[in-house]
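Help needed: design a sequence for this.
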């Protein structure tokens, strides 16, 4: 069975641990030892306090489910230990130098970096943009202002620009747009809207190119344990792990 090292023991980490039916989680790490201990109890793994010891554990792949900061701090180390890596906090890859260094290290060590589809659909076919450049790649996200710590009483747009600019002001709201850009081979345009009437996060994807045009609208149900986390994002990691060794590859 696939052996996973779990980096990050928040809500998504708990969901992964509770659904570890077709893989094992022998190693768990979090900067808060108590959180790591909780998940270790669920998955019958070992909670590590030392990151080097965590990397030395017998695992095949490390799943980052922590934060952009954790991804930036530890991704290079993971690859240098010849472990494959799943990056959930894909906002870390808005830095082109960091992204290129990770890709270079993965090539040298014979490892792979996986980016889950996260909170949207359609990421697979966006890769056609690497062959036939897209003329439009726009993500329009609508959230309740309270989720961003804002006191706004009417629907309004609070950001318009590129994904790598959005991270400077809204670091927790760029993972979807960054994943889109990585798939398509170009930076995505982002519109961030707030609506006090919104009870769920909505992502709208507008894509145009020589293939034609596409519109995808996803309304995310919050994770039962943490309203700040998309349940679809957590499920996308589980789907990736379930199929990672499958001889049948579905999708582009």
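Sure. Designed sequence:
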């Amino acid at each position: 069975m696939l052996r996973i090292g779990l980096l990050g023991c928040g809500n998504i980490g708990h969901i992964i641990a509770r659904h570890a039916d077709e893989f094992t989680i022998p190693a768990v790490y979090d900067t808060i030892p108590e959180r790591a201990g909780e998940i270790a109890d669920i998955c019958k793994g070992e909670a590590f306090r030392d990151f080097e010891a965590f990397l030395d554990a017998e695992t095949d792949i490390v799943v980052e489910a922590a934060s952009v900061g954790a991804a930036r701090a530890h991704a290079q180390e993971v690859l240098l230990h010849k472990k494959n890596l799943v990056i959930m906090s894909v906002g870390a890859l808005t830095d082109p130098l960091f992204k290129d260094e990770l890709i270079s290290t993965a090539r040298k060590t014979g490892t792979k970096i996986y980016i889950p589809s996260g909170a949207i659909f359609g990421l697979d076919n966006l890769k056609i943009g690497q062959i036939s450049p897209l003329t439009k790649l726009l993500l329009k996200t609508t959230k309740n202002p309270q989720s961003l710590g804002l006191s706004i009483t009417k629907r309004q747009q609070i950001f318009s620009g590129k994904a790598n600019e959005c991270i400077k002001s809204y670091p927790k709201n760029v993972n979807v747009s960054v994943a889109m850009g990585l798939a398509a081979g170009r930076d995505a345009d982002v519109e961030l809207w707030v609506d006090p009437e919104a009870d769920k996060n909505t992502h709208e994807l507008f894509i145009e190119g020589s293939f034609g045009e596409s519109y995808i609208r996803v309304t995310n149900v919050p994770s039962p344990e943490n309203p700040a986390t998309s349940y679809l994002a957590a499920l996308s990691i589980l789907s990736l792990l379930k199929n990672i060794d499958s001889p049948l590859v579905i999708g582009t």
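DSSP finds eight helices and eleven strands in the chain.
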